């Protein structure tokens, strides 16, 4: 061996590309280019990938068993240093990213043995493989949290199964519903998110090792071995694509943005439902804040913050899409920013689910207030009257107009709620149907509202039996 190339000639803290560049990196260069400041969270995943890689190098006889064992033993030490925080405290200025840092530490511990680890791989495929394992774990955690939140909504729906609630469109009373139906509408959103998480998981769980810098390797690597070792469900079919795509990251960023957006809709509903005007729900004191000046205040902070976080999550998605578009093929350093978006979005997503879940779990729904808000609102049953006329043979458009004209006349005459009901009962065209819907005397009793709800038996509708059906089906999935 050329003495110049002997391993002793390579200093232990050398740059990866030592030998090619004559000058060490400027501090300004390193501060801007290094990713160690954020990709340090990949440390356990780099170790997992590296362990599998060296076992494969040994199985294919590229690396002998003694070297392999030395590396695996050193990784036990490194893993312990990572979990105790010691590793992060001992980073050195030449640790450009987590992958460089781990290889440097391995070489400190094993000397020449460690220098064999990077055989047949590049940081381009290593960083992607570590990122994929990180993302796979994150998706698992997020799915578990989503399932827990769905369970909470099911429990709340069961507890409030009979509470009637003013169903809204355009924030106006539309049709009466069950509060449990509204709760389960948010469970439906999260169930779709759950499905998206599982679908994204399959595109994340791909083995990209063997791709090297971009073209594969001349060495007889056994990628089936390493893929199996890492629990991947598939091996990438193109090495250039493997090192340059970030589509699995933008997909996960979408999944997170959609989850937090869905939670922000729940947050918006809660802000409105706990408002002074509505009072439909009351937050627990330990999930609210007060005001520094106004002694009477109790604020829905989590429900508001989740709306803000949804904005940031959407920003991470659009930011990553913009950063990864128009890439000339192969690896380019712009791709490194993918992780900044990914890490912050995953963190916000997990925190948002946990916070909203805990807030919901402790929220009280005020059934009397919900009911009372409907008792004086006969117009919320206008569709029921038109549909009753349809059952008696009137085409819907004609029934609709007859009800609308009667309502307009009643409103123009500035009638009270009670007078409107009587006015509709007395109408030539819609009277019979109105009596059927409202009952034949008095104001709008709760019974009539409940009957309206129970008549909506279409699949997914607001009738109690349909809501119970959904609770049962959803609970079964998330508790299995
Ligand atoms: N830290 C880099 C990243 O996350 C990976 C290293 C690849 N760097 C390179 N110059 N080829 O994107």
Brief write-up:
This protein has 480 residues and is mainly alpha-helical. Helices cover 62% and strands 4% of the residues.
Helices and strands, with pairings:
Blueprint: H1 27-33, H2 36-39, H3 43-59, H4 65-84, H5 86-89, H6 98-110, H7 123-159, E1 164-169, E2 172-178, H8 179-204, E3 206-207, H9 223-229, E4 234-235, H10 239-244, H11 247-273, E5 281-282, H12 301-324, H13 338-361, E6 364-365, H14 367-375, H15 382-391, H16 396-412, H17 417-426, H18 431-438, H19 446-455, H20 464-479
Parallel strand pairs: 3-4
Antiparallel strand pairs: 1-2, 5-6
The structure holds arginine.
Residues 35, 39, 97, 123-124, 127, 331, 333, 335-336 line the site of arginine (ARG).
Q: Can you give keywords for this protein?
A:
single chain; 480 residues; mainly alpha; two-stranded parallel ribbon; 20 helices; 6 strands; 62% helix; 4% strand; binds arginine
Please explain how this structure is put together.
- This protein is mainly alpha-helical and 480 residues long.
- Helices cover 62% and strands 4% of the residues.
- It has helices at 27-33, 36-39, 43-59, 65-84, 86-89, 98-110, 123-159, 179-204, 223-229, 239-244, 247-273, 301-324, 338-361, 367-375, 382-391, 396-412, 417-426, 431-438, 446-455, 464-479, and strands spanning 164-169, 172-178, 206-207, 234-235, 281-282, 364-365.
- Strands 1-2 form a two-stranded antiparallel ribbon. Strands 3-4 form a two-stranded parallel sheet.
- Helix 7 (123-159) runs antiparallel to helix 8 (179-204) and helix 17 (417-426) crosses helix 18 (431-438).
- The longest helix is centred in the N-terminal third of the chain and has 37 residues, at 123-159.
- The radius of gyration is 31 Å and the shape is elongated.
- Mean pLDDT is 94; it is low at 6-13.
- Bound molecules: arginine.
- Arginine (ARG) is lined by residues 35, 39, 97, 123-124, 127, 331, 333, 335-336.
- Arginine binds next to helix 7.
């Amino acid at each position: 061996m050329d003495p110049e190339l002997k391993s002793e000639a390579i200093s232990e803290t050398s740059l990866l590309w030592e030998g090619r560049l004559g000058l060490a990196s400027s501090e300004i260069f390193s501060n801007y280019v290094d990713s160690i400041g954020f990709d340090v969270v990949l440390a356990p995943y780099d170790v997992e990938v590296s362990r599998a890689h060296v076992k494969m190098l040994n199985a294919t006889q590229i690396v002998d068993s003694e070297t392999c064992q030395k590396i695996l033993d050193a990784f036990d030490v490194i893993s312990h240093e990572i979990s105790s925080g010691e590793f992060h405290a001992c980073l050195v200025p030449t640790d450009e990213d987590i992958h460089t840092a781990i290889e440097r530490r391995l070489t400190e511990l094993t000397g020449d043995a460690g220098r064999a680890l990077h055989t047949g791989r590049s940081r381009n495929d290593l960083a992607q493989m570590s990122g994929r394992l990180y993302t796979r774990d994150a998706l698992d955690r997020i799915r578990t949290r989503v399932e827990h939140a769905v369970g909470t909504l099911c429990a709340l729906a069961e507890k409030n199964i009979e509470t009637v609630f003013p169903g809204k469109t355009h924030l106006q009373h539309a049709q009466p519903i069950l509060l449990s139906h509204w709760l389960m509408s948010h469970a439906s959103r999260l169930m779709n998110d759950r499905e998206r998480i599982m679908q994204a998981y399959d595109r994340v769980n791909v083995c990209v090792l063997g791709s090297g810098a971009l073209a594969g390797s001349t060495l007889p690597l056994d990628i089936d071995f390493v893929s199996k070792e890492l629990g991947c469900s598939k091996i990438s079919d193109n090495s250039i694509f493997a090192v340059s795509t970030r589509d699995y990251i933008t997909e996960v960023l979408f999944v997170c943005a959609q989850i937090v957006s869905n939670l922000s809709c729940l947050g918006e509903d809660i802000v409105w439902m706990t408002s002074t005007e509505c009072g439909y729900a009351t937050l627990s004191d330990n999930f609210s804040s007060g005001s520094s000046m106004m002694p009477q205040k109790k604020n829905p902070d989590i429900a508001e913050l989740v709306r803000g976080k949804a904005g940031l999550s959407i920003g991470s998605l659009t930011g990553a899409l913009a950063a990864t578009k128009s890439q000339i093929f192969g690896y380019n350093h712009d791709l490194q920013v993918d992780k900044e978006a990914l890490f912050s979005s995953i963190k916000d997503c997990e925190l948002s689910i946990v916070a909203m879940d805990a807030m919901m779990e402790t929220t009280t729904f005020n059934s009397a207030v919900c009911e009372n808000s409907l008792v004086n609102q006969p117009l919320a049953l206008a569709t029921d009257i038109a549909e009753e006329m349809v059952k008696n043979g009137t085409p819907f458009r004609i029934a609709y107009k007859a009800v609308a004209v009667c309502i307009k006349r009643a409103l123009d005459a500035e009638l009270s709620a009670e007078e409107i009901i009587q006015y509709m009962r007395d109408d030539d065209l819609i009277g019979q149907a109105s009596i059927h819907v409202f009952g034949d005397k008095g104001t709008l009793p709760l019974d009539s509202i409940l009957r309206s709800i129970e008549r909506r038996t279409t699949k997914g509708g607001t009738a109690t039996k349909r809501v119970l059906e959904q609770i049962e089906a959803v609970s079964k999935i998330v508790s299995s």
